[in-house]
């Protein structure tokens, strides 16, 4: 019998239930009746109809809505990020042993984590968290068989030293939490945009006033991890006409743009777009 997407998500969560701790009181949790996570002091969190769990006790409103995640799915399915994901997968494969437990901190709609786990040919377990409920809902529906949870990066609902790898792709980091969650010798892999990332869109939307990025993300990363390595990944991606609108929708670069400017960009068209990332690898420090 073929399992439903919901049951595949629930089974994955049951298999990894020892990872969880209550976001309210930090007690251990267990799955009850395949339908809710309950901690030892009786805080209870129901699973959704699609098999994810909301472990962010307070409601949060983010700019990441359903239409944004639909746009992101369209762009990711085009192969837009494939070379970056290939590098990240190789780093995980070379740096971890056995079947690594991977946490994607800020997973969005789950496409990156699902792609990486798939590339590792089943030799990894994926857990994805994000504060945007719409992203986790999309992940649970589109990528069943992993653990998906709405959760706050500042208060991750997981036990200490349970993860072999933490991914942090185009997302804010919480290095104190990452250090707490990683096993001894665990890996943190972070991808940050470089100066040429989406430069064609920047030229249209910002002209001379290009927003300033974090000037030294590698330096800040190196303050928290040992054996830091970096790899630059730069390429141009041919952009089909029907991918430009979802690309504009998904990137924060355009969030403050006027409708007129967006219309101008769509009329101009872009035959290709530049992808430019630095992928950082660090090892959890001892002590």
UniProtKB/TrEMBL annotation:
<dbReference type="InterPro" id="IPR029063">
    <property type="entry name" value="SAM-dependent_MTases_sf"/>
</dbReference>
<dbReference type="InterPro" id="IPR052939">
    <property type="entry name" value="23S_rRNA_MeTrnsfrase_RlmA"/>
</dbReference>
<dbReference type="InterPro" id="IPR016718">
    <property type="entry name" value="rRNA_m1G-MeTrfase_A_prd"/>
</dbReference>
<keyword id="KW-0489">Methyltransferase</keyword>
<dbReference type="InterPro" id="IPR048647">
    <property type="entry name" value="RlmA_N"/>
</dbReference>
<dbReference type="GO" id="GO:0008168">
    <property type="term" value="F:methyltransferase activity"/>
</dbReference>
<protein>
    <submittedName>
        <fullName>Methyltransferase domain-containing protein</fullName>
    </submittedName>
</protein>
<keyword id="KW-0808">Transferase</keyword>
<dbReference type="Pfam" id="PF13649">
    <property type="entry name" value="Methyltransf_25"/>
</dbReference>
<dbReference type="InterPro" id="IPR041698">
    <property type="entry name" value="Methyltransf_25"/>
</dbReference>
<dbReference type="Pfam" id="PF21302">
    <property type="entry name" value="Zn_ribbon_RlmA"/>
</dbReference>
<feature type="domain" description="23S rRNA (guanine(745)-N(1))-methyltransferase N-terminal">
    <location>
        <begin position="20"/>
        <end position="58"/>
    </location>
</feature>
<feature type="domain" description="Methyltransferase">
    <location>
        <begin position="102"/>
        <end position="186"/>
    </location>
</feature>
<dbReference type="GO" id="GO:0032259">
    <property type="term" value="P:methylation"/>
</dbReference>
């Amino acid at each position: 019998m073929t399992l439903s997407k919901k049951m595949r998500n629930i089974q994955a969560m049951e298999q990894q239930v020892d990872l969880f701790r209550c976001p309210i009181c930090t007690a251990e949790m267990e799955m009850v009746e395949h339908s809710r996570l309950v901690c030892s002091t009786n805080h209870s969190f129901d699973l959704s109809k699609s098999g994810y769990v909301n472990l962010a006790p307070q409601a949060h409103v983010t700019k990441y809505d359903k239409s944004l995640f639909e746009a992101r799915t369209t762009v990711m399915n085009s192969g837009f990020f494939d070379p970056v994901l290939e590098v990240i997968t190789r780093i995980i494969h070379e740096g971890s042993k056995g079947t690594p437990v991977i946490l994607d901190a800020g997973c969005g709609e789950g496409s990156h984590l699902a792609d990486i786990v798939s590339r590792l040919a089943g030799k990894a377990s994926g857990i994805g968290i994000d504060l945007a409920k719409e992203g986790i809902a999309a992940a649970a529906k589109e990528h069943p068989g992993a653990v998906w949870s709405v959760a706050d990066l500042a208060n991750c609902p997981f036990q200490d030293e349970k993860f072999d790898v933490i991914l942090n792709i185009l997302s804010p980091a919480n290095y104190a939490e990452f250090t707490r969650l990683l096993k001894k010798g665990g890996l943190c892999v972070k991808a940050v945009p470089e100066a040429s990332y989406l430069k064609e869109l920047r030229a249209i939307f910002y002209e001379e006033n290009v927003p300033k990025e974090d000037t030294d993300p590698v330096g800040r990363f190196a303050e928290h991890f040992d054996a830091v390595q970096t790899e630059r990944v730069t390429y141009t991606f041919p952009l089909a006409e029907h991918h430009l609108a979802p690309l504009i929708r998904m990137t924060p670069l355009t969030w403050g743009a006027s409708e007129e400017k967006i219309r101008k960009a769509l009329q101009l068209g872009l035959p290709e777009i530049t992808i430019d990332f630095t992928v950082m690898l660090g090892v959890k420090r001892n002590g």
